Amino acid sequence: MPRDRNSDPIHDVPPGMERLLAIMRRLRDPETGCPWDVEQTYATIAPYTIEEAYEVADAIERGAMTELRGELGDLLLQVVFHAQMAEEEGHFNFSDVADEVARKMIDRHPHVFGDESRDKSAEQQTRDWETVKATERAARGATGVLDDVAIGLPALLRALKLQKRAARVGFDWPATDQVLAKIQEEAAELVEARDELGPAEIQEEMGDLLFVMANLSRHLGVDPEAALRGANAKFTRRFASIEAALAERGRTPADSTLEEMDALWDAAKRAEKLTE
Predict the structure, then answer these.
(1) What are the pLDDT digits (tens) for 63-114?
(2) How far is it, in rounded angstroms, from Cα 182 to Cα 173?
(3) Are 34 and 27 in contact (CB under 8 A)?
(4) Cβ atoms < 10 Å from Cβ of 195
(5) Chain mean position to CA 37
(6) Top enzyme class of this protein (predicted)?
């Protein structure tokens, strides 16, 4: 016989973090929990954690504040899920996670929580922040400059972090002109690989070109992820215009020529310029 959901003790737990933690404990209970939640591991949950972080970023970019509230909740759930699994294994619990980040914030802000002066620029604070993080890395035994740049980061973001870390010790081009010259060099090598070499070399040269493009973004002060998201959105918007224009003619992209679609693309582009 189904249990009355309103009689479940979970409804007596105060709302907020206490209830969320209780819900996760219940979901993971081997006897009374959800079979799907019980069988999950760090590895199976990790992709959802990454996905939820991107959905938070998407809601922020669209200015969708109601959605952002929900997406932040979904991201918080991922933290709670990982912490619950760690607690079951005797490693740490959610309180330990919260205490760790609180300690880290205090240690990294001596100008707020300590006796250092707040009279410093944001740029100086960034340098101080990196100095503190370098000390923390050394304490963990990460002595190499590029140690502990997470391997699981999206490739474009990891490229940016690797380059920033190397730049701090002077391994960097002094100006964008050198980066642009490197892009030309890598593009030429990609053409050579396409014409004379095999798939493995083509992939390698494409990777080199993308890596330098990320470096150019850094030198120009552009977030490459944001720039590419913007380009994706623009492509989606303009292609939708092509589909709409063709639909008015009773046609689809599949039964149209490239020349027709190019002309409609240019028309969509001109229409956007007029509304800017």
Answers:
(1) 999 999 999 999 999 999 999 999 999 999 999 999 999 998 888 888 888 8
(2) 10
(3) yes
(4) 8
(5) 25
(6) hydrolase
| Residue 235 domain boundaries | 226-275
Q: Is residue 80 part of a domain?
A: yes
Distance CA 204, CA 190 (A): 9
Instruction: Report d(CA 243, CA 209) in Å as an integer.
Output: 32
For residue 149, the SS3 value is coil
Residue 192: strand, helix, or coil: helix
How far is residue 26 from each of residues 86, 92, 142, 215, measured CA to CA in Å? 15, 18, 38, 47
- For 37-63, give the secondary structure using H, E and C: HHHCCHHHHHHHHHHHHHHHHHHHHHC
Amino acid at site 95 = S
Domain count, the chain: 2
Decide which of 83, 107, 131 is a domain's last residue.
107
Q: 138 φ, ψ to 5°?
A: -60, -40
CA 219 – CA 163 distance, rounded (Å): 10
Amino acid (one-letter) located at 96 = D
User: 276 pLDDT band (50/70/90 cuts)?
Assistant: low
Q: Is residue 145 part of a domain?
A: no
